[in-house]
Amino acid sequence: MRTKTLMAVVLAAVALAGAGCTGGKKEQLLRPGLDQFHTGTCYDAAPTVLAVGDLAIRLRRAGEVSTVDRTTLGSGQRELRKLRTSAELEQPVKDLVTAIGFVRLRVDSNSYDSKLMEAVLNAEQQVVKRCVDT
Predict the structure, then answer these.
(1) Which member of 2, 46, 47, 126 lies 3.0 to 4.6 Å from 92 by CB, making a disulfide possible if both were Cys?
(2) What is the pLDDT of residues 33-76, one digit of tens each?
(3) Contacts of 46 (CB under 8 A, 6+ apart)
(4) How far apart are alpha carbons 84 and 41 in whole angstroms?
(5) What is the pTM of this model?
(6) Closest CA to 49 of 70, 67, 76, 27
């Protein structure tokens, strides 16, 4: 009987963790592989877009941004600004560049707020949605 109770507690804990403890609302982030991106600009942007997205996921609850992460944000922003985008992709890429810029400004002024990473992640997801078939 004790084993069954312990198993029930463990399973309940795993279920809560899997649901993100959000009352059943589960966040669905698109994390495609590079080969899933459309050819052309999307494929060219994919490594940078995914790297920025992975960084935003990791930092969205962090209290500070390391020097390495600052460098990654800066280089990602520069790479995205250099892209030649189609009309369909132009605004989502601009939104991502802008969101990264706000994070960098706040980090440099020692007023970083991890909620800013949600804006980066949301902008990254818009680019991903335009660049992969879901």
Answers:
(1) 126
(2) 999 999 999 999 999 999 999 999 999 989 999 999 999 999 99
(3) 34, 37, 131
(4) 7
(5) 0.77
(6) 76
Q: Which residue has the tokens 């990473």?
A: 117
Secondary element (H or E) of residue 7: helix 2-18
Tokens encoding 50: 């995914």
Domain boundaries, the chain: 1-30, 31-131
Residue 91 has which token pair? Answer: 């605004």
Residue 12: is its pLDDT beyond 60? no
Q: Return the structure tokens found at 84.
A: 């030649």
Q: Which residues pair with 37 in a beta bridge?
A: 132
Structure tokens at 63: 């209290």
Q: Is 89 helix (H, G, I), strand (E, B) or coil?
A: helix
Tell me the C-alpha to C-alpha distance, in Å, between residue 60 and each of 41, 88, 121, 123. Answer: 27, 27, 9, 13
Q: How far apart are CA 108 and CA 70, in angstroms?
A: 9
The token pair that represents 47 in the structure block: 């490594």
At residue 27, the pLDDT reads: 64
- 91-126 burial code (b ≥16 CB/10 A, e <16): ebbebbbebbeebbeebeeeebeeebbebbbebbbb
